[in-house]
């Protein structure tokens, strides 16, 4: 059975003979073989609940479960957090690599930041809600020849939250698979545990897997009223050496990306703060093979303005506005040139009122909206003309929501939620517009029998209207020996989902000695999706060229069900963590298993810090069970091992110095993941950073 996917790029070129064997247009294609850096050296810290470096660490705070800040230990949901300290120990080439060891999260990435795909519980990227500093990102979808990249430099991330399962009642249309929330750093974060008010950070890293270099420089400062940070990161890489054949891509590949980030916060009073941030990202992906040359360029601007004000228990305001613009250019020597432009303007407003009425209430209510526009130009020869494959189109999504965190007793709490959503899609092409609205309720019950143990159960509903490309994108294009045809479908229905989940979390301190801590989280889920949007593929080999025809259609009924487990134990300088995910995705109309989804995965990480010499060796194991890919090809299971060493010496006049080395895929295991990603061969990584 074909994988239930969204059509992505239609002519991203295949660069080596391995990729030529696959169905080029059923999934997204980078300009070199897809790689899944399964065990990046320094992703060692990323395990599902290793959220405390020591028992005395400040409790991790999350927002994705309830839209307001709360400790992770009190979050009644399947949430994983990658903390600032964990990210600081890593050297990821792309953002997707940060998520590699989270249960039931699949990532597909390449050496270029333009090609990152994240799947949560079998969902597609279009079914995930992406948040940066609380603002929804509407330009992270894929369609036609436009790739998707989560353009967020890991150097500026304070925290990454992944909430498995739908939650659109809080965050708007689209997140029926899960929510991915990124929080950026402030100067106070860079200067934490320091009495300095100004500082700078420089960092350099190298990876042999794709001959990659990364360089970063940031400056930051703070005062009683101001907090300012600014910096830039540059990344360069070439052809990847995959584990499949142990050879580099046969194409001459040149990737580079530059990320600029500026953020300023003004706090005139203790209860009043205004923040303005700007992010600029540009990426190039150039390749040449024989007489064929392809050039991809992706550019993004993002401006976010936010204001927070807390007057009393009844007035706790948060509001934000965002403007984002993305431009994608493709050209080759066929000749064929494309220019796509994507713009969005979005905003949200919420207030939280806290009061006592037969128990404690934290009542949060508000509204959000997002207006998106896209257009395309093309030039075969001569003048630029409108690209009929991507007609001018616009979309509007809006809604109002309310949620009550109601604590009846010290042992029992209930959190009902309700959202009204509206959407509209229209195009200047000869297609009818589409609009609709829907109420999506949800409820969570939380039971805390003792302080260290919590149980929860929840039922939440989701709602995802089709994106513009799913409805209006069309194509008829020949490249690399095949012809691809995409037929638009303006009659698509929105996807509707119901998520059932039960779980428990544990948090015990001083179990076997003073200072140790054991945390664990377990959940069982059942996601029921109606009118699932699937891209059907019809091959035709009767002509001189094989023809693949694609069209998005609604399926009747898809179910995702599974288990997620994680645990962490810390005592003195020793820590160990483990996680496990089981996922079964099934098309109930055909009773067939959905392909392209990793059925089982497990991770183990352990390390010990020698305080007297500031050295921390670590080991990590990643295991994945095999299954059928979206190309109807079976890939076997695999296990990869990684080892590494980090060193944080104390050097006078430097606030922090961190050096690291690591070896990924220690045994040089040859594998291709179920997501059709070619894993890296054995590789070496090294990095050095200094903050002063």
UniProtKB/TrEMBL annotation:
Gene3D superfamilies assigned: TonB-dependent receptor, beta-barrel domain (2.40.170.20), TonB-dependent receptor, plug domain (2.170.130.10)
Protein name: TonB-dependent heme/hemoglobin receptor family protein
Subcellular location: Cell outer membrane
PANTHER family, per the entry: HEME_HEMOPEXIN UTILIZATION PROTEIN C, TONB-DEPENDENT OUTER MEMBRANE RECEPTOR
Lineage: Bacteria, Pseudomonadati, Pseudomonadota, Betaproteobacteria, Burkholderiales
Domain TonB-dependent receptor plug: 72-179
UniProt keyword terms in alphabetical order: Cell outer membrane, Membrane, Receptor, Signal, TonB box, Transmembrane, Transmembrane beta strand, Transport
Chain ranges of the TonB-dependent receptor-like beta-barrel domain: 253-666
Coiled coil: none
Keyword Transport assigned: yes
Motif (TonB box): 60-66
Topology of this chain in the membrane: Multi-pass membrane protein
Originating organism: Sutterella wadsworthensis 2_1_59BFAA
Cited Pfam families: Plug, TonB_dep_Rec_b-barrel
InterPro entries documented for this protein: Beta-barrel_TonB, Beta-barrel_TonB_sf, Plug_dom, Plug_dom_sf, TonB-dep_rcpt-like, TonB_box_CS, TonB_haem/Hb_rcpt
One GO cellular component term noted in the UniProt record for this chain: cell outer membrane
Family: Belongs to the TonB-dependent receptor family.
GO molecular function, one term: heme transmembrane transporter activity
Endpoints of the signal sequence: none
UniProt GO BP: siderophore transmembrane transport
UniProt KW RNA-binding keyword: no
Principal subcellular localisation of the protein: membrane
């Amino acid at each position: 059975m074909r994988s239930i996917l969204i059509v992505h790029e239609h002519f991203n070129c295949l660069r080596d003979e391995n990729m030529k064997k696959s169905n080029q247009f059923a999934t997204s294609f980078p300009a070199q073989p897809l790689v899944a850096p399964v065990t990046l050296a320094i992703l060692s810290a990323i395990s599902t609940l290793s959220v405390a470096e020591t028992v005395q660490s400040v409790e991790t705070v999350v927002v994705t479960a309830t839209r307001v800040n709360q400790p992770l230990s009190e979050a009644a949901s399947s949430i994983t957090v990658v903390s600032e300290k964990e990210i600081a120990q890593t050297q990821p080439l792309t953002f997707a690599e940060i998520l590699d060891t989270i249960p039931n999260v699949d990532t597909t990435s390449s050496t270029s930041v333009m090609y990152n795909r994240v799947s949560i519980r079998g969902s597609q990227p279009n079914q995930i809600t992406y948040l940066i500093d609380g603002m929804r990102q509407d330009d992270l979808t894929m369609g036609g020849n436009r790739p998707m990249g989560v353009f967020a430099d890991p150097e500026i991330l304070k925290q990454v939250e992944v909430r498995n399962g739908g939650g659109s009642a809080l965050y708007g249309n689209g997140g029926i698979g899960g929510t991915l929330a990124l929080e950026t750093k402030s100067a106070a974060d860079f200067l934490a545990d320091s009495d300095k008010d100004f500082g700078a950070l420089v960092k350099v890293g190298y990876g042999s897997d794709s001959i990659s270099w990364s360089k970063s420089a940031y400056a930051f400062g703070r005062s009683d009223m101001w907090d300012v940070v600014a910096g830039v990161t540059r990344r360069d890489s070439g052809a990847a050496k995959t584990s499949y054949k142990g050879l580099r891509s046969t194409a001459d590949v040149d990737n580079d990306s530059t990320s600029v980030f500026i953020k300023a916060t003004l706090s005139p009073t203790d209860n009043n703060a205004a923040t303005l941030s700007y992010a600029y990202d540009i990426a190039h992906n150039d390749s040449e093979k024989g007489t064929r040359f392809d050039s991809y360029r992706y550019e993004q601007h993002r401006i976010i303005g936010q204001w927070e004000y807390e007057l009393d228990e009844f007035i706790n305001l948060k509001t934000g506005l965002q403007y984002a613009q993305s431009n994608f250019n493709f050209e080759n020597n066929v000749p064929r040139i494309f220019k796509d432009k994507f713009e969005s303007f979005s905003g949200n407003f919420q207030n939280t009122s806290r009061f006592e009425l037969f128990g404690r209430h934290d009542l949060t209510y508000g509204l959000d909206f997002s207006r998106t526009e896209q257009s395309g130009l093309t030039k075969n020869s001569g003048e630029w003309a409108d690209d009929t494959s991507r007609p001018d189109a616009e979309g509007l999504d809006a809604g109002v929501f309310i949620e009550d965190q109601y604590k009846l007793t010290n042992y029992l709490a209930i959190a009902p939620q309700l959202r009204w959503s509206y959407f509209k899609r229209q195009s200047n092409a000869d297609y009818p517009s589409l609009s609709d609205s829907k109420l999506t309720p949800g409820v969570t019950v939380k039971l805390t029998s003792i302080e260290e143990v919590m149980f929860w159960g929840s039922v939440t509903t989701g709602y995802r209207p089709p994106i513009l490309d799913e409805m209006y994108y069309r194509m008829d294009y020949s490249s690399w020996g095949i012809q691809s045809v995409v037929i638009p479908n303006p009659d698509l229905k929105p996807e509707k989902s119901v998520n059932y989940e039960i779980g428990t979390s544990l948090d015990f301190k001083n179990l076997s000695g003073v200072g140790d801590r054991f945390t664990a989280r377990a959940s069982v889920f059942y996601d029921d999706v109606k009118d699932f949007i699937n891209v059907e593929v019809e091959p035709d080999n009767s002509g001189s060229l094989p023809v693949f025809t694609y069209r998005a259609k609604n399926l009747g009924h898809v179910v995702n069900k599974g288990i997620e487990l994680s645990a962490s134990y810390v005592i003195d300088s020793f820590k160990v963590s483990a996680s496990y995910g089981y996922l079964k995705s099934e098309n109930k109309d055909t009773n067939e298993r959905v392909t392209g989804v990793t059925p089982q995965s497990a991770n183990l990480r352990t390390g010990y810090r020698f305080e007297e010499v500031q050295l921390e060796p670590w080991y990590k194991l990643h295991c994945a069970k095999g299954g059928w890919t979206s190309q109807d090809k079976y890939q076997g299971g695999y296990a990869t091992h990684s080892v590494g060493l980090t060193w944080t010496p104390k050097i006078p006049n430097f606030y922090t110095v961190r050096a690291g080395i690591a070896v990924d895929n220690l045994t040089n295991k040859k594998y291709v993941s179920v997501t059709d990603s070619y894993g890296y061969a054995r590789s070496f990584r090294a990095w050095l950073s200094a903050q002063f």
